[in-house]
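quick one, 483 residues, struct below
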Amino acid sequence: MISILSSMIFTPIIGILFLMTIRGDENRIFRNSRSVRLIINFSEVLLCIFLLKSFNIDDSSFQFIDINLWIEPFSYHIGLNGISILLITVIILIFFLSCVIDWNNRIKLSREYMILLLWLESMIIGFISSLDIFLFVFCFSGIFVPFFFLFGIWDQRKEEGKNILILLMQSVSIGLVVLGMIMIYLNHYDTSLVSILEEGNKYKLANKEFIFWCLFVSFTLSIFSSLSTINKISNTVPISIIINTLIISILAGFYGFYKILLPLFSEQLISYGNVILSICLLGFLYFSFKAYSQNDLRKTIYSFSGSLLCIILSSFCSLSNLSISGSFYLLLHYFFVLSGLLICIDIIYRYRNSYHLTDYGGLLSQAPFFSRIFLLFILSSFCVPLSGGFIGFFMILLGFSNKFPIFSLFFTLSIVIISSYMLRSYWYICLGKPEEGSSFLRLSIREKSILVFYLGVIFSFGIFSEFFMPFIFPVFNQVGGLL
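---
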């Protein structure tokens, strides 16, 4: 009997098979394809609810284990712990909402578009739940397969050079993961990640250094490789493509840190902590400089994302369970903030067909509801109290205060810097005097509902944190026992 978790992995594949059988004219293919996609994503939501109800938060080990011999010595071995079930829930929610966003959008090659997104969904669920080296590498590689096609087909500017650069960075990321995992296998002669994590101190030092840097560079490339698409991709690309590819690429990189680097390479994180922190600091300064030196709304969101990701990445150097738990909580918060901001940008662009901040003004008087919603997303971006980011950032700060007091000051100043250029963007767009003859497009009920839902999740993380923390703390406390 197939397990619930396996059902969640293979349900999108079943949807792909149905999509491949659809025939007819363009309108019929579009209607039937979006219906299949909605049914598949709604089924995933129901399976996820059942999974959450069956999960035992008092057990920090892997649950919903499903293991079958695949290609000897590799096996189909999957399971979830507290952090992985939260990530899968977030991913399924975002994919379902992207389906709702796209409902009335007439997208060219709609069937192929939805096939690629369903493949992406299956691969990321498989990656998060994988407990075998081969399955981990297979799903990690499968995540990046649709990226080039999604941007290459739907970007009417046809910037092959940019797409090839993204593909090259992701190919290097995949190659380094493959190399690192092969070296891990040669040290253990075991493909089970569960047993490898338990026996993680049996490496020879030289091998361990090499494997650490292979995986560190690979996961870091995964985090930042797709980030530039925010400010370089054309407005012809559906907003759900940007949301899904960005979040999945970032999630894959950070989950590699949480699942592999933390329990296996704690000594290297300590040894090279100052180097990694310095790189994160330089990265933060670079993104902050980019934010202040330009007049483009997309580049502001790009700078905000890069700055916050540098803060989250630096938290791994503390090896504090509190700080690492806070970074994970901040990451979950960031996914919904980024999604909401990108949708707001898409709506604002339809208002004036421009991303330049100086082309706007007075949106508050023309669209008071949207302006207030946009303000809440802006405030959430720099971790305003009552949002999930405030709790995550405060946990990171506390975890860092003992080992790196100077960097604690940097974290405090970083929020001030982020808030300054995010509020600057809001001031340009929503305040001031509107130009004569300009009018803001009325939001549909669907768009209002999606934005309000994202805000509800963001502030639920801040108000009801006691619901989420029992999933997170036991996992990182157990990792702390392996450090």
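Strands lie at 63-69, 75-80.
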